[in-house]
Design goal:
The complex is a heterodimer of chains A (359) and B (188). Chain A has 359 residues and is mostly beta strands. Chain A contains four helices and 19 strands. Chain A folds into three domains: 14-93, no CATH class; 114-242, Immunoglobulins (Immunoglobulin-like); 246-357, Immunoglobulin-like, CATH 2.60.40. In chain A, 14% of the residues lie in helices and 34% in strands. Chain A starts with 16 loop residues before the first helix and ends with a strand. Chain B has 188 residues and is mostly helical. Chain B has two domains: 1-91, Rna Polymerase Sigma Factor, Chain: A (Orthogonal Bundle); 101-188, Arc Repressor Mutant, subunit A (Orthogonal Bundle), CATH 1.10.10. Helix content of chain B is 75%, strand content 0%. In chain B, α2 (20-40) packs antiparallel against α8 (133-144), α3 crosses α4 and α9 packs across α10 (160-176). Classes of the chains: A mainly beta (359), B mainly alpha (188).
Chain lengths: 359, 188
């Protein structure tokens, strides 16, 4: 901190230390999620051709810069977000966006949504067709040569998504580094906890060998692979689903006791939910319950005496079908109200139960 | 900056010569700060704007001439320009950011343990974003970006004195915010 903020106010005002630490904390996993995309961007920029062209230096520099960008853009090998930015920067000179390109007049119609046979996941593809050849199961991989680039690759825009959400998958068919347009590819899905790969959708590669598929309503962890005739299947891409878990407080039936109800709509009946209590600045697990068929479970907690308060949260541990999740925190506290009666012998204390949700 | 600054200079030099590891060091060091700064500005799509910022920075890296501090200043200047561009085409949703980060029921990232344990960066960024614009930006560039007063003044087009005043007022407002005291009590 001192290196970044040598004469900063943090030392002058200790009350701000926590805030300043948080603002300058190391990057979280979420903030660093685009690491690979940034590296790809850097690599592409360093491979830009730097030949001396037979025209003036100023124009040459601009031309080299633009040529490098166009090459990268036409190659369509950047990750989708970066690729899209590259195309946006270059669209003034007529470079089409491979990931946001409208279908050509002769292209087959875009399939709106293809339901998966294994879950309630829906997959849409663009561009795609219904005439892709019959798929081969990707359960047995053909290993390419040690130095050969993979002919078929698949990548997800996000590795973790909120349950019920969607994700974009980008695939590319380029055996030997040459893009293969007009080839039918199949997306296979393996839902966590189930055996075997099932067809989730299909698409036809565009002129750059690219396909883009959108998954919707994913409710459990799943792996995805692409297959194409004559090519080994792509490596599997795992998408972890994070079910939200909520904690709500209600007055209990017995005096001095409250009820905390945990709800996780996308978790499974029987999943364990752990109630945690905060003390000494740390969370401590105090009880475990299993979710019922209605995806909720309740914990009864004592209301602490006047002047005190306890914080709770629930944690939904990761299972084979979903990732780890935690609720917001809830505070259970007793509220003391002083009723001032100047004519009585002493002040009377009226105690009521109060609750605060901190989340 | 001292030794850390010298080390950063070396990393920058290696990145400019094409060293991927050095570039990643640079990116990992500055990208989270850039994202936070953009969020303080109320950037609705901070990730996209940050990507565009790095795209320009990487593209022009060969032409950049300066040390670590200059690079940091240059990067955040690009980020500010890209955020302004973005705000012209997208609706700023500062209110939404604050709602997401501070409202009791809204926990946008329940999977992030750090959001729940003690001071979260997201909450801190949201608190800074609540300041008046000039104070928020002065605090963000000074604290989050780690720029010195002169550099902040250059980016904002103000005098160093005006930046100091905005920074002082912003920090004083933050120090008086009851949520800071309350949350620190919870953490203790």
């Amino acid at each position: 901190m001192s290196a970044d903020f040598p004469d900063g106010p943090g030392t002058a005002d200790p009350s701000l230390d926590g805030l300043l630490r948080a603002l300058t904390a190391d990057g979280s996993a979420d903030e660093l999620a685009a690491r690979q995309a940034a590296l790809t961007l850097f690599r592409r920029s360093r491979r830009r051709p730097r030949r001396r062209p037979p025209f003036p230096v100023g124009a040459a520099a601009a031309a080299v810069l633009v040529a490098g960008g166009i090459a990268a853009a036409y190659a369509a090998v950047l990750p989708a977000p970066v690729q899209h930015i590259a195309f946006r920067m270059l669209d003034g000179i007529g470079v089409p966006d491979a990931h946001h390109r409208p279908p050509s007049p002769g292209a087959p119609p875009v399939a709106s949504s293809i339901p998966s046979t294994t879950s309630n996941t829906a997959v849409s593809a663009a561009p795609t067709a219904t005439a892709a050849p019959a798929p081969a199961c990707p359960c047995h991989s053909v290993t390419p040569g040690p130095n050969a680039p993979p002919a078929l690759v698949l990548a997800a825009s996000r590795a973790r998504i909120t349950a019920g959400g969607g994700d974009d998958l980008s695939g590319r068919l380029a055996p030997g580094g040459r893009a293969e347009p007009g080839v039918g590819v199949w997306l296979f899905e393996r839902v966590a906890g189930r055996r075997g790969w099932q067809v989730a959708g299909s698409a036809i590669t565009d002129r750059y060998g690219d396909v883009r598929l959108t998954i919707r309503n994913l409710t459990g962890n799943a792996s995805f692979r692409l297959t194409a005739p004559g090519s080994p299947p792509s490596l599997p891409v795992l998408i972890t689903v994070i079910p939200r878990v909520y904690l709500d407080l209600a007055a209990g039936e017995a005096p001095g006791a409250d009820t905390l109800t945990a709800t996780a709509p996308f978790a499974n009946a029987g999943d364990v939910v752990v109630l945690q209590e905060r003390s000494d600045g740390k969370w401590h697990s105090v009880r475990e319950h299993k979710l019922g068929r209605d995806h909720l479970t309740s914990f009864t907690v004592k209301v602490p005496g006047s002047g005190g308060g306890l914080e709770y949260r629930v944690v939904l541990p990761a299972t084979i079908t979903h990732g780890w999740s935690a609720s917001g925190r809830v505070q259970v506290a007793a509220l003391v109200t002083r009723s001032s009666r100047p004519h009585s012998q002493a002040g009377h204390e009226l105690t009521t139960t109060s609750r605060r949700v901190l989340r | 900056m001292g030794a850390e600054g010298d080390e950063f200079d070396d990393v920058l030099a290696r990145a400019r010569s094409g060293d991927e590891r050095a570039f990643l060091q640079l990116w990992e060091r500055l990208h989270p700060r850039l994202l936070r700064y953009l969020r303080v500005l109320g950037c609705d799509e901070a990730d996209d704007v940050a990507s565009e910022t790095w795209l320009q920075a990487v593209r022009d890296l060969d032409r950049f001439d300066g040390g670590a501090g200059d690079f940091r200043c240059w990067l955040f200047t690009i980020g500010r320009h890209r955020a302004v561009d973005a705000s012209r085409t997208r609706i700023r949703s500062r209110i939404r950011l604050l709602t997401a980060a501070l409202a009791p029921r809204a926990d946008p990232n329940p999977v992030e343990d750090e959001v729940l344990d003690g001071w979260s960066t997201q909450q801190a960024v949201a608190l800074v974003a609540r300041l008046p614009r000039d104070q928020a930006e002065a605090v963000a560039l000074r604290v989050i970006a780690g720029l010195d007063t002169a550099a902040v003044a250059g980016i904002l087009g103000k005098s160093p004195g005006a930046v100091r005043i905005a920074l002082h007022r912003g920090l004083r407002t933050l120090a008086a915010d009851p949520r800071i005291a309350g949350l620190q009590e919870v953490d203790q």
